[in-house]
Amino acid sequence: MTLAYYPGCSLEHSSAEFDQATRRLLDVVGVEIKEVPDWTCCGSTPAHMMDHLLAQALAARNLRQASLVGDEMLAPCPSCYQREKNAQIEIHKDDEFRAEVNQVLERAYDGKVMVYHLPEYLTRFVGEEKIASLVKTDLSQLKVVPYYGCLLGRPSELTGECDNEQPMMMDLLLQAAGIDVKWWNYKTECCGASVGMPKMEIQRRLSGKVIDQALAVGADAIVVCCPLCHVNLDLKQGQINKFLGTEYSMPILYLPQALGIALGLTFEDVMLEKNVVDPRPMLSRAISEAAAVREEEERKAAEKAAKAAAREAAKAEKASGDSEPAKADTEAKS
Amino acid sequence: MIRYDAKLAAEYRDKLIKRAEADVRECYQCGNCSASCPAAFTFDYPPNQLMRMLQIGLVEKVLDSSAIQLCVQCLTCTARCPRNIDVAGIIEDLKTVAIAQERDVPEHVNTFNRAFMKSIAHYGRLPELYSMARFYMGTMDPKMAMSDVGLMRPMVSRGKMKFVPRKSKGADEVDHIYKKSMERAKARERSGNAAGGTVGTGSEVRS
Q1: Which residues of A touch B163 (CB under 8 A)?
Q2: Where in chain A is the domain with CATH 1.20.1050.140?
Q3: For position A326, what pLDDT does the model report?
Q4: Tell me: the pLDDT tens digits for B37-72?
């Protein structure tokens, strides 16, 4: 069965780059996907703030549609992932509740579709080894911090993340792709997404702190895997600067953008032109720096090899010089 | 003086145990939730106080608090609770009760929920620009809308905006789900009130 792909509303428009980068990346690592037929909104975030049954039924409708394609569904947007996963768990374990959900659905959902988020799917079904083996572009000079936000790890019972204070999936994937991953303490802090519109002040302060901490550990960019984190950190960076009186200019990359470039995709392939804080100069610089470092290393290695060769030659000469009189000696003796 | 309403507290706790699989009685007031909460600085009561208020039956006060509406649902409190209480789940649950009971929800939270949910129900998929416009109209606060107008330029120049929303194929079913679920929620609250209970929680969802 192929992997059912649920893009979700954000990826359709405001985060088109996340959608395209994910599709291209999955193509490169050899995962075949099929879009969930006639998918609709998962209901995040208003639905689960309004009514429980509404939230689960909206998510269940998409699970039903996904079951037409396969038994595994990828939801790259963590908001969608949480809603779909939540519904998956509750509906699959509670037949009574499933019957109730089916009462508000037009056609019943009786499948068993498993929901995954992108880092989870890549870690479990593609693997770091495969990603490492496919690396084409050297990004060793690109210093990033992975930002998980709230929804990829919490709560552990739902996501299966063994350590929701220090999740490692994105760290390991980025390292496998040869990127310089920095350690920081804001991996799972909240950016304030869900109240970004009704309560702007919370969002400005929380997102500002995240960027501040990324700068403090010397990162060039923050890697996110969530369209809402991206909007808050990237699109609203100007507003944050205005509110806090700062001058941040920190590119925010999507995980599949960073991985995709390491795996040989071009800037256009992963739609870097759509990011508001332009990451292209930073990436070009990192790539040329990596080339320079490599050149320098090669030059040093060549120098070292030349020196070693010279030493060998000198030794050989000396050895042959030593052996000649010995030879003469033996000749004389005979 | 805060009076302990034993009956109300017991009634509420029982309902909560069923629904959130959590038990506010477990809370021993360590304050981990409040220390971790990124949005507590905007709350009228921090999360640990909410738990205490639920323990002693001050449910009405909790339902009217701004805290349950301003919670960002980051789930840090739930993840860090040493007593395994699903604090965020309880807050989310209370939020749905407050909305179903049509309480005065502070700030623009309700406006946001309505604007977005109605757009989703109508179009099937979330038409971002359309729902944002709807939200700002609902707030009746032009200053708020103006502060986000600046976002339009980068969105438009990068082709991230769709101006005319289009109905997607499953839209009718989504509308159907929305109407049916909300009808049920309202009926549940009405029957809860008629039976003399002041608090309805999601527990009746299952029945």
Answers
A1: none
A2: 3-116
A3: 54
A4: 888 888 889 999 999 988 888 888 888 888 888 888
Q: Does CATH number 1.20.1250.20 belong to domain B6-105?
A: no
What pLDDT is attached to residue A200?
74
At CA A166, angle to CA A165 and CA A172, rounded to 5?
155
Q: What angle do CA B108, B112, B113 make, to 5 degrees?
A: 120
Residues of chain B with pLDDT under 70: 1-6, 8-10, 12-22, 105-109, 129, 139-148, 162-163, 192-207
Q: Give the Cα separation of A26 and A34 in Å (integer).
A: 11
Helix H segments across chain A?
A: 9-12, 16-28, 46-50, 52-66, 78-93, 95-104, 118-121, 128-133, 156-159, 169-176, 200-216, 227-230, 237-244, 255-262, 280-333
A147 and A229 Cβ atoms separated by less than 8 Å? yes
Q: Which of A191, A173, A170, A171 is nearest to A183 (CA)?
A: A171
Which tokens belong to A219?
């990162």
Mutation target vs A (from B66, B160, B169, B180; most A CBs, 10 A cutoff): B160
CA B164, CA B166: separation in Å to the nearest integer? 6
Distance of CA A112 to the CA centre of its chain: 27
Which residues in chain A have Cβ-Cβ distances shorter than 8 Å to B147? 200, 239
Q: Pick from A162, A134, A119: which is nearest to A254 by CA? A: A119
CATH topology of domain A130-284: Rossmann fold (3.40.50)
Q: Is the peptide bond before A45 cis (omega within 30 degrees of 0)?
A: yes
The mean per-residue pLDDT over the stretch A140-151 comes to: 90
Q: Which residues of chain A form CATH 3.40.50.11810?
A: 130-284
Domain boundaries defined on chain B: 6-105, 109-181
From the CA of B43, how many Å to the nearest CA of chain A?
11
Q: Which residues of chain A lie closer than 8 angstroms to B181, CB-CB?
A: 51, 53-54, 57, 104
Q: What is A3-116's CATH number? A: 1.20.1050.140
